[in-house]
Structures are given as structure tokens and as C-alpha cells.
Amino acid sequence: MNTKIDSFDQKILALLQTDARMSHAEIGRQIHLSQPSVSERIKRLESSGVIRGYHADIDPAAFGYQMTAMIRLSTQQGRPYAELVAQQAEILDCYTVTGEDGAVMRVLATDVAHLQRLIDKLNRYGSTSTAIVLTTHVAGKAVGMPTA
Question: Which residues, 6+ apart, have CB-to-CB distance to 66 below 8 Å?
């Protein structure tokens, strides 16, 4: 992906990350570009893969989830857990990482018993370490240009 992102593109991306349903005309008004220019830029950002998609931000409580946890999985067996992780709706993110852990996952659970059942499934692939999230200070932060 060698798309050059200029200051107008950065402004468009910041606005879309705040409200993906914002009209191209409104974006143009806010950044002082014409609606056709905004539309063309967005189309270019989509086709080049900078914009990967649009989604709705859903409250997990609407599905009965009352807790979020981070589960670390240590395994020396490659990634045999990949199929399970892909099938479990409760596992929102799974990252293969460096260090002692093979994977780190962000999961949702309806209660402690539900979390325990999920941990038991993952324990078939190695040892787990779990931390229940008490407070979220930053989540879903917009992606921006590096500052350092």
C-alpha cells in the first residue's frame, strides 16, 4: 500500500473515524473541499485499502455480555487454536505475539462461569493467563499519523 496520504486525506479519515455515516458534502464543508473532490478522495482511499470498511459500534451488553477479559495463551504448538478462535463469537481479537505467550485475546463473557468455559476450551491448546478488565480508559481510538 503506497498511497500518499496528504493533509486533506488525514482530515477526511479523522472525520470518517468519528462518524462513518457523515455525508461527503458535510465532510467537504468541514475541510473546505468540494463534495466531488471528497468523494474522489474517499473512493481512492477505499480502493487502495487505506479504508478497509465501515461498521457499527455495538454495545456488548445488548447481547448479554457483562465482562471483558484479556486471555494470554502460551503454546509451543504453532497456532492450533486458530480454528477455535475464529468460531468463538466471544473472542473479539486474537493476536500472535512475541515473548512467552503465543497469543493474546480480547474476549467477552456473560459472567464468570461463561468466562471459565471459554478458558477451559483454550486450555486444550496450552496454558492460559486471564485478566478481567475493570475499566477501559481508551478503546476504539482513531488511527492517525505517527507523531514520534
Answer: 109, 110, 111
